[in-house]
Specification:
CATH architecture of the largest domain: Alpha-Beta Complex
Strand order of the largest sheet: 1-4-18-14-15-16-17
Structural class: alpha/beta
Oligomer: single chain
Largest sheet: 7 strands, mixed
CATH class of the largest domain: Alpha Beta
Distance between the termini: 27 Å
CATH topology of the largest domain: 2-enoyl-CoA Hydratase, Chain A, domain 1
Radius of gyration: 23 Å
Number of strands: 19
Strand content: 15-25%
Number of domains: 2
Length: about 525
């Protein structure tokens, strides 16, 4: 007879996968800035996130313990000395999603590190946001992330965004054995010590990717932000299955050879929703009458708002994430521990693939915080991130059908995504072939002086960024046989993306069954909160 703990473990894992029966409740599903309430066919497998893990009892105590008991390096206090040049490199606003309730864990880490540095006589300190080719964070976003006290003490001269286009601000260290450019921010290259402050939102974050991607330039990113590397990655979330991870590791190993980098990585649970929206994390079977009334009221209110207002309301609700782990020290041993904790929260065992998989697409992505989830970002969420929420075996079978739930509106943010507009309207109508896009147009956009200026002086993503977003969906496009966007409010956006459209989810399922056969199996990834389908064949 199995011990009680084993029985409990099996029950907890299996309870995250629910098979739809007659009488199963309708599912509350994200579709952009609102929700759908959908009855699913009998037999549909609904995969729910795990319940949130317990957070550490005392975040600051966990940070102090980690930096005093690091992995593979001396304690942080032993690395600090008077007169040294210290740079704290910080993950940008792309993680976590939505932004967390303040104080942000990055603020908590910096408060401890900066106090320790002051006690050690270190006064040449800069805080650098690792935004790579992402948009520059705004003054308000920067203040919120680190708190008013740190912001006022360091901004703007010693707390600023990385500039990948500063002709005097990048230093090339050397090249890897694969001829990959290893270039970093000059301030970083000239520092005696770098402390990297990480938020590990999903297993793809952290490790060598932090420095290798966050503080580099276009020339270095070309090594792995390209269609071939993406096609060679079976999952972005599983290091051994990711060519992207392997390239970052080669680059990061060179960085670690030249620079002293002390990583502080943190993991979060998936407590994405707090009161009064915490019911969204529940299975619909567990809704109370009050939950159902709150959902109906929220859906009604969002439906009555102009989309821009609904978007602003949703972006204004922070997530009450708890910190579940803090690990510090050398890059690789730290990241091993980070990944272990991350998978404990996100991994949901799933037996077998499905012919048809449904992805509800919410209002937010790493590249649309306080902005618009434009068509290219809908594409990257569905075929890029959600498709890759696995350990190397996709939830959908080869040649299967993905159904995305989103209005697929033709809206772009000209301040944040100016080059996306040209990419979508001028380039994509000519070809959706990533290889052709890369060879014919990528450099034109990357070197466009207007886009370079908007990246450096405004709050725009780099001119090349829409290409990366298109490449990011490459392995999903190569794998599936058809994509249907259910609830699309127009015909031309799905057509440009190479997708079919339907008015309703029911119609999309019927079309998918016509493509895959009437006995096709169906799975719904009930996201958000975040989960990763650990598929076993």
């Amino acid at each position: 007879m199995r011990p009680i703990k084993t029985l409990q473990k099996l029950h907890d894992e299996e309870s995250q996968v629910v098979i739809t029966e007659k009488g199963s409740p309708p599912r509350a599903l994200f579709s952009g800035e609102n929700f759908l309430l959908e009855d699913l066919p009998v037999g549909t497998r609904v995969i729910f996130p795990r319940p949130p893990m317990e957070g550490v009892p005392n975040v600051k105590a966990a940070i102090r313990w980690a930096i005093n008991h690091p992995e593979g390096m001396d304690p942080l206090h032993a690395l600090l000395r008077p007169g040294m040049k210290l740079t704290c490199v910080i993950d940008d606003i792309s993680v976590p999603l939505p932004p967390m309730v303040t104080p942000d864990v990055r603020q908590s880490i910096l408060e401890i590190v900066l106090e320790l540095a002051a006690d050690s006589g270190v006064d040449d300190i800069h805080l650098l946001i690792a935004n790579a080719l992402h948009r520059r964070m705004t003054e308000g976003e920067m203040r919120r992330m680190v708190g008013t006290k740190i912001f006022d003490a360091y901004y703007p001269d010693r707390y600023y965004n990385h500039d990948a286009e500063d002709p005097d601000g990048i230093t090339e260290l050397e090249r890897t054995a694969h001829n990959e450019v290893v270039a970093v921010n000059r301030r970083v290259a000239e520092s005696d010590l770098i402390v990297y402050v990480n938020v590990n939102f999903v297993p793809m974050n952290g490790g060598h990717k932090s420095m290798g991607t966050g503080v580099t330039n276009y020339a270095s990113l070309q090594a792995h932000h390209n269609p071939k590397t993406i096609r060679d990655s079976d999952s972005y979330m599983e290091p051994k299955a990711s060519a992207l991870y392997k390239s970052n590791s080669r680059i990061g190993t060179v960085i670690d050879k030249h620079l002293k980098v002390f990583h502080i990585e943190t993991t979060l649970n998936n407590r994405m929703f707090g009161a009064p929206t915490d019911f969204l994390a529940k299975k619909e079977e567990d809704y109370t009458e009050a939950d159902r009334l709150k959902f109906q009221a929220m859906r009604f209110a969002l439906g009555k708002m102009p989309r821009a207002v609904a978007r602003k309301v949703l972006n204004a609700i922070p997530a009450p994430y708890d910190v579940t782990g803090v690990y510090a020290g050398a890059t690789e041993p730290v990241h091993v521990k980070t990944l272990e904790t991350s998978w404990k929260q996100y991994s949901v065992p799933v037996q077998g693939q499905s012919d048809i998989v449904i992805f509800p697409i919410p209002f937010i992505s790493p590249y649309s915080v306080n902005s618009i989830l434009n068509p290219l970002l809908v594409q990257v969420m569905g075929l890029g991130y959600f498709f890759n929420l696995n350990r190397g075996i996709p939830l959908v079978k080869k040649g299967g059908v993905l159904i995305l739930l989103h209005p697929a509106y033709d809206e772009f943010d000209p301040e944040h995504h100016p080059s996306y507009i040209e990419f979508f309207n001028r380039i994509l109508p000519e070809t959706r072939d990533s290889m052709k896009l890369q060879h014919k147009y990528e450099r034109e956009f990357a070197e466009n002086p207007s886009y370079v200026h908007l990246y450096r002086k405004g709050n725009a993503y780099h001119g090349v960024h829409p290409f990366y977003m298109w490449y990011w969906g490459e392995n999903g496009r190569q794998h599936v046989g058809k994509v249907i966007v259910a609830g699309a409010e127009n015909n031309h956006v799905p057509a440009l993306l190479g997708w079919d459209r339907t008015d309703t989810l029911t119609e999309a399922i019927e079309e998918a069954r016509g493509f895959m056969g009437r006995s096709a199996t169906i799975s719904l990834l009930r996201i958000a909160p975040t989960l990763l389908a650990d598929v076993k064949l």
